[in-house]
Write a structure and sequence with these properties.
Strand content: 15-25%
CATH class of the largest domain: Alpha Beta
CATH topology of the largest domain: Glutamine Phosphoribosylpyrophosphate, subunit 1, domain 1
Shape: globular
Structural class: alpha/beta
Bound molecules: fructose -6-phosphate
Strand order of the largest sheet: 3-2-4-1-10-9-11-15
Largest sheet: 8 strands, antiparallel
Number of helices: 18
Distance between the termini: 10 Å
């Protein structure tokens, strides 16, 4: 949540920071701001709303200098108005701060500082940080910015990512990470260095990055940087080379990132399978999981932890792992898990699924698992993210950058990763015959083609969206492995079109939600040819009998369903295990076209952010 960019070097800082913020806008877009040191002053420009407003503003009111910081905000404390936009200046204008996270004790600190004569100019929790730094700069730190920052952050409760600039030492940026309020990457270049909360912000300039761990501080200058713990010890951090191609993070011919990312799914699933299936040797290879056959055989249970879309992906993975590796799987929300005092030991693997690798609730669940002695794995998209680094083993989604706030290709690639994981575990545990492995890997090999064919329904979905976009409530029904697909379809619709939508297990409809059904309620049913097809037909009959407008996702060639549903969208025939991938893609398209028809901001829906780094 919130995006941070910093620059120090030979270029003009402002365009570098604005470009970086553009790439981070998906993290929050309530307000935006920059601070650049020029002459002997810190110049701040900020405004409510999006980066486009700031770009206009600096055209007429430019600032030019070689060091600066910027921020795009997802509001937590204080309304999204200009005075609450970051960067925040200290009372005497000597220090300026951008921040990700929540200062849990900010009211207390604010009262103490106010009593000492500090005048606050915003309603944010962040402002206490910069006021504390200014206080400690004169009182204990002898003007040293790093030292003043170190002293100040010791008073903060909560998790934080902070970048500080000062006119006292205008050759450096100080970056601090405490806990899991989002990452801090330091990018290195020739005579220049970058700071960013997320990799895409600086990928145009460098692929060489260092990531701060919790309770570390970086002092970043034009010609070098040093990393220390908050206790003052030097840290030798390892540089990572990040492979993403910034071009793939551009919209190209598509109208929205979400549309582009939906259409990239045949490619991204190919990349996810690539290198993991040895078709000649008839086996799945997942070396990054760091799992021995002995460990696999001793496993008793898998606990999947995730949030939002990633949680629904975990519900599908449960079918794979239970069926193929004969291991019991529990799926839990990251935000709930640690409050349950869960029972864990080294015969349990906790599997975190997270696109960003920075979701604070999922990271907290991983920490809980680590403390209780479980094996910790992650399925992650963002290379180098915290969830990848702290796990004992990981599987990359290989989806490439996902910029649209609503998750699409990360969902389908994480489902495929879990299919691969289930096969790998089944192989190591001896629960799958060679013939079974072959049949499943062939199912995977055919999947990109089926995804490509599914995307051909775009036109039909576009027309359907025009017919149903004005309804205000939708019910999504699925059964078995397609129940999580119904949940995901409903989430997609509500988050980008603001239409109320509920996902339900189809068999539960008659236990309550049926009371809602009338001629104003579209009911989206996933009625593909599988072992619950007949049951789904009965549910469609029951909904129709209450005048619902029934939209059915059906298998190509099913003519019976045309006599039952008002609208039928055909998907290619596929193995039941990959059906949810195809049905979710159809539901992503439906949500997308409904939202576009309603004129909603598809890539940046209100109140949401791509990376949820606050509790
Ligand atoms: C929905 C969506 C969110 C995320 C959730 C977890 O489209 O994007 O529900 O899935 O915030 O995010 P990650 O996967 O980054 O942990």
């Amino acid at each position: 949540m919130c995006g941070i960019v910093g620059y120090v070097g030979v270029r003009d800082a402002l365009p570098v920071i604005l470009d970086g913020l553009q790439r981070l806008e998906y993290r929050g877009y309530d307000s935006v701001g920059v601070a650049v040191f020029a002459g002997d002053t810190i110049h701040v420009r900020r405004n409510a709303g999006k980066l486009a407003n700031l770009r206009e503003r600096v055209k007429t009111d430019p600032i030019s200098g070689g060091i600066g910081i910027g921020h795009t905000r997802w509001a937590t404390h204080g309304a999204p108005v200009e005075r609450n936009a970051h960067p925040h200046l200290s009372m005497n204008g000597e220090f300026v701060v951008v921040h990700n996270g929540i200062v849990e004790n900010y009211l207390e600190l604010r009262e103490e500082l106010t009593a000492e004569g500090v005048v606050f100019r915003s309603d944010t929790d962040t402002e206490v940080i910069v006021q504390l730094i200014e206080k400690f700069a004169s009182d204990g730190a002898h003007g040293d910015v790093a030292e003043a920052t170190r002293l100040a952050v010791q008073h903060l409760r909560g998790a934080h990512a902070i970048v500080v600039m000062s006119k006292r030492q205008p050759d450096r940026l100080i970056a601090v990470r405490i806990g899991n309020a989002g990452g801090i990457a330091i990018g290195t270049g020739e005579h220049e260095h970058f700071v960013a909360s997320d990799i895409p912000a600086i990928l145009d300039y460098t692929h060489s990055m260092i990531f701060l761990e919790s309770r570390q501080m970086a002092i970043v200058r034009q010609d070098g940087f040093e990393i220390q713990t908050l206790g003052g010890q030097q840290v030798h951090a390892q540089a990572h080379t990040i492979p993403y191609d910034p071009v793939s993070a551009a919209k190209g011919e598509y109208k929205h990132f979400m549309q582009k990312e939906i259409f990239e799914q045949a490619r991204s699933i190919t990349d996810t399978i690539g290198g993991r299936v040895d078709f000649e040797g008839n086996q799945v290879v997942l070396p990054s999981l760091n799992l021995t056959a002995e460990q696999a055989q001793q496993l008793q249970r898998i606990v999947t932890v995730a949030c939002g879309t990633s949680y629904f992906s975990g519900l599908i993975g449960k079918f794979y792992i239970e069926q193929l590796a004969r291991l019991n799987v529990e799926v839990d929300y990251g935000s709930e898990y640690r409050y349950r005092d869960p029972i864990l030991d080294d015969t349990t693997a906790v599997l975190a699924i997270t696109q960003s690798g920075e979701t604070v609730d999922t990271l907290a669940a991983m920490e809980e698992a680590r403390e209780k002695g479980a094996i910790v794995w992650s399925i992650v998209n963002a290379v180098g993210s915290q969830a990848m680094r702290v796990a004992d083993g990981h599987i990359a989604m290989n989806a490439g950058p996902e910029i649209g706030v609503a998750s699409t290709k990360a969902f389908t690639t994480s489902v495929v990763d879990q299919y691969l994981l289930a096969l790998y575990l089944g192989q190591l545990r001896g629960t799958l015959s060679p013939d079974a492995i072959k049949s499943h890997t062939q199912t995977l090999a055919r999947l990109p083609d089926l995804v490509g064919r599914t995307l051909e329904i775009e036109r039909a979905i576009h027309e359907l969206a025009h017919q149903v976009y004005a309804y205000t409530n939708f019910l999504y029904l699925g059964r078995g492995i397609n129940y999580p697909a119904a949940l995901e379809g409903a989430l997609k619709l509500k988050e980008i079109s603001y239409i109320h939508a509920e996902g339900y297990p189809a068999g539960e409809m008659k236990h309550g939600p049926i009371a809602l059904i009338d001629e104003h309620m579209p009911v989206v049913t996933i009625a593909l040819k599988d072992n619950v097809y007949d049951k789904m037909l009965s549910q469609i009959e029951q909904a129709k009998a209450r005048d619902a407008i029934v939209i059915a996702l059906a298998t190509e060639g099913d003519t019976v369903i045309q006599t039952k549903a008002d609208h039928v969208i055909y998907l290619p025939e596929a193995s039941a295990l990959v059906n949810p991938v195809l049905s979710v893609i159809a539901l992503q398209l439906l949500a997308y076209y409904v939202a576009v028809r309603r004129g909603a901001d598809v890539d940046q829906p209100r109140n949401l952010a791509k990376s949820v780094t606050v509790e």
